[in-house]
Amino acid sequence: MEDMGATKELTQAMMDTIAKDVAESLMLELLHGNCLLICEKEGT
Questions:
Q1: pLDDT surpassing 60 at residue 32
Q2: Which pTM value belongs to this model?
């Protein structure tokens, strides 16, 4: 049972890390997209 608990905690930690990476990637994509839109508006 102890092994299962440790595995669950490790899995949760991995999921949290992956979630953070994905969230950061999405934020960067959104920021980049917004910058492109703003630059296009400024350019015209």
A1: yes
A2: 0.60
